[in-house]
């Protein structure tokens, strides 16, 4: 394989020594590891075309990889496969302030787009918390969100066009610079397809004007359910906050000693609620938000008085995951999304599960979107704790599906949640997914065995659940 | 076939007498007509499942039909096929003001949703000009827009979930009530698929709060290009108007004697620019818009002073098509969409084509979206005029594609623009569309020969263009 690749790539673009390929054995979900056969680092679309044609000819599977920050194992290698990294396609090709668009290669970092657009007063809206490191190619693969996606949308709402290469080496453009494109909306199906349909070579993103001003409210609630109802009340009042995040007491007490964000650790839950726009718009919206929050029973309300204080309020939320690592040896981050009106019901359900499994759970989440990130705290060195954490997590996801939600909001399915897909979708729906997969990649060479479970797999998983709820060893996270 | 259908449908749900099937021989594109074999009018999902299973077994093609208001012939029957009308599935199943959603059957009229939601102060945002008559099933099939879609989005942005039946009779749910769904985004690919992937049985739509107030500016420009630049300047100023429409002098002079909307018929172009929201928001936005328009060279600005005046300003725009019928025996309405920044360039191109083809063209369009509706005026009774109109139209669409746009904004491809798809897409892209089509309907029974041209067809069309630009007779509109 390496010899064949040398016909189409320069030697420096091929890694096969285990010392060189070791960094690629996992992505951000480090519990799942697998050394790849070879890693390739093409630096042009022509090289990607050549690699794909070669792999197609030799029937070698390919795992595409962006920056490797994904949290669901979507970029985990295959033992007899090639990892194709898009890291070297890292140029911003065009930046057009007039049409507010940028054309970038897949290896451009999310934040680098906003940095480059700043001179025009513009930025790229979706802001996953990994935005310093993650790249737009990976964002397209996972349909990434962020704390501002309630107002500004997910990746799919901020990308106009994708240029990609099929497994057969054909270059295809999806979408258009105009509002709508004729034909089937393959751009939307491609965004979030977790590397199963093709390799991105160019992305045309929308840019939006940087708001002149932003302020954030921190509101305290004596009951979690009251906080949840306040979220619904804000939306019902016709307000779309620029960010609407909630943390329960376990989370705020976990974070406060670490970050000193000034959180009310006596409150059962705190809500962070941001307004952005012109100074007048922000002032008016902050007043309206405060009134709704007060009406909804907030026990205290603080509004950031400076940009420094705004950043301080957000710093606690943004450091919740590292803070969890300080108070618990291990934690398991879930990513369920539910209809907003079900927030109270699901949080009560999680509280009951804490008692049932004898484990604590810190709830930090994008409340406005209904996107939960429960952090189940456990110690893998205590016998049985990991198994309980895992069963706890599966029960949370099952509850999300039950109330009309979904098993992933923004982290993707990857390898981690592939069995939960069997709970979410009926065979006819999985078959519809595979139909589209086959349309692009009938030989299943692109990121196989990720994201969509085979019906066979679901049947086996169903049997396993019946026989005791254990996952096969290969899919147990290894801490 | 009728006998077989009687096994699964009551007699009143089957029409086969030509007297009964005549109304179904065309949709809103009346130039294309074809009598169907049979029309069926199921009134439940179970009946739709039974009809599809039967047609699948007997390999009989099916043309789905909503209210028949489509403008691209997407619901034109097939001689040996069944037309499946969803008109009898016309119930609103659930209306939930708290989650701001409604679950409706496909035959519910677009405006009926807003009427039912009005008691909660909500409405369904997409507003095609046929909204009194058109149904949500057809809106899903065509991904319909409207004058407010710049701010509120197309159908795809306002639908959360679709329940549909595949050609094999399997019921599949696409999307979710949560912000995002796991798996491939088949909801987006289904919306706008022109009846080629399945039959809709339920649609969950988003509802939005009715704005407390709305006002519209009418701005006059002495040059069309100045008006186009004003559109860009508004967007560049960070303003997203609730509606942003432009009419050239041909259009305003065509409409004014008919509607008496108070249009400035001396202006080369007029812009209608709406603000909605609270009274304070509207006041502020109208002031900002007026400043930008003045800066962009508007020669006069009028702001609606009452709801009656606002409706009067819009009445001219909304009656542009009927007005065209008063001044010209025939007109041909195009539907190209281009990047906003190309508006001036394309309008200049159209002006040159008017001279080249010796025909007038009235330009009425959703300027904010870049969605053009040039109305080519001609008289089919004058020898050669129709052929010139047709060549004119094809050249407009070719120009739209050339500047990075698309051949349809909201009317769909149907039968009308199937050859233009060959100009828009490369063979690899068409093959990707067909791949998805095959995944759902390998035998091509659902609305065959619409929306996506076969490579064969494109090859023939290419040859025809080389040999003189004539379309085959079967696809000539018959006036």
Automatic annotation (TrEMBL), chains A, B:
Full protein name: FAD-binding protein
Respond yes or no to whether keyword Zinc-finger is given for this record: no
Pfam families to which the protein is assigned, alphabetical: FAD-oxidase_C, FAD_binding_4
Q: Which UniProt keywords apply?
A: FAD, Flavoprotein, Oxidoreductase
Question: So which residues are the signal peptide here?
Answer: none
In terms of superkingdom, the source organism counts as: Bacteria
In alphabetical order, the GO MF annotations are:
FAD binding; oxidoreductase activity
For the keyword Glycoprotein, the answer is no
Q: Give all residue intervals belonging to the FAD-binding PCMH-type domain.
A: 32-210
| Required cofactor names | FAD
């Amino acid at each position: 394989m390496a010899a064949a690749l040398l016909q189409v790539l320069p030697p420096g673009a091929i890694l096969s020594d285990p010392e060189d390929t070791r960094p690629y054995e996992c992505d951000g979900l480090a519990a799942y590891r697998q050394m790849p056969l070879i890693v390739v680092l093409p630096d042009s679309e022509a090289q990607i075309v050549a690699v794909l044609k070669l792999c197609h000819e030799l029937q070698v599977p390919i795992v595409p990889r962006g920056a490797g920050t994904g949290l669901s194992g979507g970029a985990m290698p295959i033992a007899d496969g090639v990892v194709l990294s898009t890291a070297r396609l890292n140029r911003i090709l065009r930046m057009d302030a007039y049409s507010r668009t940028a054309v970038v290669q897949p290896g451009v970092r999310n934040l680098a787009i906003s940095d480059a657009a700043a001179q025009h007063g513009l930025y790229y809206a979706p802001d996953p918390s990994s935005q310093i490191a993650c790249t737009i190619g990976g964002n397209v693969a996972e349909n990434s969100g962020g704390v501002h996606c309630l107002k500004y949308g997910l990746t799919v709402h901020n990308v106009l066009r994708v240029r990609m290469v099929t497994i057969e080496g054909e270059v295809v453009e999806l979408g258009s610079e105009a509002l709508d494109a004729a034909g089937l909306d393959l751009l939307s199906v491609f965004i979030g397809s977790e590397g199963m349909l093709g390799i991105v070579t160019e992305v045309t993103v929308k840019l939006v004007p940087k708001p002149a001003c932003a302020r954030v409210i921190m509101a305290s609630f004596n009951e979690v359910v009251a906080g949840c109802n306040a979220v619904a009340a804000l939306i019902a009042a016709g307000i779309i906050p620029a960010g609407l995040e909630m943390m329960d007491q376990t989370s705020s007490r976990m974070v406060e000693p670490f970050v000193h964000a000034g959180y009310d650790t006596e409150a059962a839950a705190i809500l962070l609620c941001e307004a952005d726009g012109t100074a007048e718009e922000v002032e008016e919206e902050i007043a309206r938000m405060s009134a709704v929050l007060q009406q909804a029973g907030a026990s205290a309300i603080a509004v950031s008085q400076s940009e420094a204080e705004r950043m301080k309020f957000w710093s606690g939320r943004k450091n919740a995951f590292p803070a969890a690592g300080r108070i618990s040896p291990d934690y398991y981050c879930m990513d369920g999304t539910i209809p907003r009106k079900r927030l109270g019901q699901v949080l009560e359900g999680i509280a009951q599960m804490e008692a049932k499994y004898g484990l604590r759970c810190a709830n930090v989440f994008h409340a406005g979107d209904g996107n939960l990130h429960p952090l189940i705290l456990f110690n893998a060195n205590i016998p049985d704790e990991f198994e309980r954490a895992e069963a706890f997590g599966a029960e949370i996801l099952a509850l999300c599906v039950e109330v009309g939600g979904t098993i992933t909001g923004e982290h993707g399915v990857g390898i981690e949640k592939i069995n939960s897909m069997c709970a979410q979708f009926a065979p006819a729906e999985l078959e519809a997914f595979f139909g589209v997969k086959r349309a692009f990649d009938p030989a299943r060479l692109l990121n196989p065995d990720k994201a969509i479970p085979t019906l066979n797999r679901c049947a086996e998983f169903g049997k396993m659940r019946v026989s005791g709820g254990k996952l096969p060893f290969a899919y147990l996270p290894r801490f």
